[in-house]
Each structure stands twice: as structure tokens, then as C-alpha cells.
Amino acid sequence: MSSDTYIAQLRTLLDDDCLLTDKDSLDHYGKDWTNIKQPAPLAIALPKTTEQVQALILWANDNQIAIVPSGGRTGLSGGAVAANGELVVALDKMNKVIEFNPGSQQVKCQAGAITEQIQQFAEDNDLYYPVDFASSGSSQIGGNIATNAGGIKVIRYGLTRDWVQGLTVVTGKGDILELNKGLVKNATGYDLRHLFIGSEGTLGIVTEATLKLTRKPVNLTVLLLAIPNLDSLMPILQQFQKAVDLTAFEFFSDEALEKVMAHHNLACPVQQRAPYYCLLEFDAASEDILEAALAEFETGLGNEQILDGTMSQSQQQVEDLWKYREFISETISGRKPYKNDISVTPEKITKFLTGVNDIVAKDYPDFEVIWFGHIGDGNLHLNILAPEDMDYQEFTESCEQVNPKIFTLLQELGGSISAEHGVGLLKKPYLNFTRSDTEISYLKAIKHAFDPKGIMNPGKVID
Length: 463
Fold this sequence. Notes:
Blueprint: H1 3-11, E1 19-20, H2 23-29, E2 43-45, H3 50-63, E3 67-70, E4 87-90, E5 97-101, E6 106-110, H4 115-124, H5 141-147, H6 154-157, E7 164-171, E8 176-179, H7 193-196, E9 204-212, E10 220-227, H8 233-243, E11 246-253, H9 254-264, E12 276-283, H10 287-302, E13 308-311, H11 315-326, H12 328-332, E14 338-343, H13 349-363, E15 368-374, E16 379-385, H14 392-412, H15 437-450
Parallel strand pairs: 2-4, 3-4
Antiparallel strand pairs: 1-2, 5-6, 6-9, 7-8, 7-9, 10-12, 10-13, 11-12, 11-15, 14-16, 15-16
Helix pairs in contact: 8-10, 13-14
């Protein structure tokens, strides 16, 4: 059957102007932030209802056409890439808040709602949606659920998984499932909701979500600390955790700070530069909490685990101090960094960082390395910058040759090759460093149960 015939059939399943076939749209919707392959989808479908999503999946099954679900396309693993004639199903037009229950502090929304939209909705109702990251202004709730997105508040609030209390999904077979229905307690067998969270669109498409909200934090306060070495990281974290309830504990290198200051024309936030920096955020609801944090700061200065630091005195200063951490990805993006998003349990952070630094120094002696991450939950971002005069393909191949060394160390420490960006295309060759062969066989069985014809996001996560 010709592509023109397919297009004609698809138009009958959607509202007017909800099927895009122009080159600009195919290019825009056919890739994510990785830009690893030239997009070449069949078409872009923009459904408005769960039933239209179901109709598209049933059509794809009948015609054996692959589907690539598309959210905000802010992923960094190639999970939303459509390069082989797939039908991209984008949920941009499914972006409404459906229901709000102030008593149970729940909001039900369509999966195309932007993360920032839900954060603002919570704010408008004197509540808080704490899942937060740099792409919150463009990422969609459905995409966050599909990748179990984390971000900067995980140490206090957990991952997306911890805030999803119900899902409506369309499976790869075309069945509509209502999962958990917003219940807090539901002891009736397997919770299929959790299979879809983090599934990267390989089992079906999330169309609606019921999300839990919580109270707003009071007087968020930031401490930015200059520290002399990696050995100081965990003692600082442990001591501050005893004193205050941290909402974030971030880490970045002096190389990262230097690039952010130069790119954004920012002043140095501390008087004494150091090899590494920590950014701590906590809910300072009382003077006692502030005094406890300052006492830990003074203790760190006294035992030389902290060299210098600064504390926010206003909401504007909170936002200004966060810039030194949040601007890192944007600042280095022009250098096309080769990224590894990895994690170990927090107590193994120092050992892992030291080991990777040794590998990088030996194998990348001429490459710039930028470290940052959500170190409070064990998540690190290793960014290797391409030399300006080096062919990018050659650079990528060079980085890939060292991946097995880094991932072997990760495996020895019981870590993960992908902490929060997903597996997608880029990490699939390395899945066995985190998952055993037996686990992968179970993943494949689950995939087959929900998507027996293999049409949902094929080639991603597992074969």
C-alpha cells in the first residue's frame, strides 16, 4: 500500500488539520534533543482524545506500521526518534486539565499538558507539584511518565513515579486501560500503572494522568558551597541531612562554573574558588532551621570540608544561585557534549567519581570534561566536550570506545547506565551492564504481552 493511501486513511481518524506531512513538521516531530538520526516519519498525528489514540494504534496494528509516541521531545537518549517511516503520535493537542480535587490534592490532566503548566496550576491553587527540571517549560507530563523523569528535587520528593496516582493508557494492542483510578490504597494484584511509568512508549501511550500535589514549601533557601575535594561530598551531605530537610543537593565542577560565568556574564558566587561546588536547598520554615544550617556551614569551614560559601537572603537570590547549576546544560550545548547520565547509591559516589576521573584522564587526555549532577540521589552527568577542530563522528566514536570501561566500573558498584534520561536508542547497547539476561527476558515478555505485533516505539530499550 502506498504512503498516499496510508495518509488518506489516517485523515479519516482525526479532526481536520490534525495530520501533518510537510517536511518542517516531519523534521520537528521526528527527533528529540539528541539529533542522532535524520528524521523520516510517515506523518505526524495530533489526536485530541483517548479514543483517537486508540483508533491510530488499531490502524497501525492492521497495517503493521510502527508508532513513535512524542511528548515534548526533550529526551537525551533518542527515545522519540522516528527515522524509518513510523507514524509519530504527538499529544500536543491533549493538554487540558480535566479535573481537580482539592480535598484529595489531586489533579487529572491529559498527557500533553506541559510540566510548567501543572506546576502553575498547583501554585494557583496554593499547592505544589515538585517534579522539576530544566525542561519543565517544554516537557510534557506524558513524556515525564514514560521516562519516569526525576530532576532537581528527587532527594526530598522522589521521581515522577511517586506522584502518579492514576493513568489512562492505550496499549500496543489498542486496549484502553484505566489504571488505579487515583486510589491511594488498592491491593488488588499487579499494579500495571507502574509498568507504563518508565516504559518509554514501548508498551502503549499514556493519554491521561492523575497526579498528586502537596503543600508549598516555605522560605526555600539555598547554600552554595565551595569544597576542596570529592571526599568532602558525602560528609557534607550526611551532616546537612541530619540538620535540615534538604529539597536538593546538587554538584558541579569548577570547569562547569567557569563556563556558565563566561557564557552568561555572571560574577563568581564565592570569594574562594574550589575544584568542586555543592548547591543545597532546604525549606527554612523557622529561624531554628536556618540556625541549624548555618551551624553545619561553620562546622564544615572549621574542619576544612568547606572552603567558602554563600546563602540566599531572598527569593531573587535563590533564583540567582540556582543559575550556576541550571545553566550548565544550556551553556555547553554548543560544544555538542557526549553525555552519560549515570547513577550509583549515594555512599558509592566518591568511589565512582574517582574511578571515572581516572578513566577519563587516561582515555580523554585532550578532551574537556564537565561534571554536574543530582548527587543527593546518586545521579551524575558526565559531559565530554568535543574539541572544536575535531570531526564530531570521530569524537563520538572515541567516546563510545571508553563507555565499556565506565560501565564496567558502574556494574561493579551496582549502578545504572541511565539514571533519568531513559535507554532509548543510545543506551540500548549497554543495557546488560545494569540488567541481567534473565531480567531482559522478562522485559521482552512484558513487551510482547502489551504489544504483540511490536509496533510501539520499536528498536528502543529492548529488541
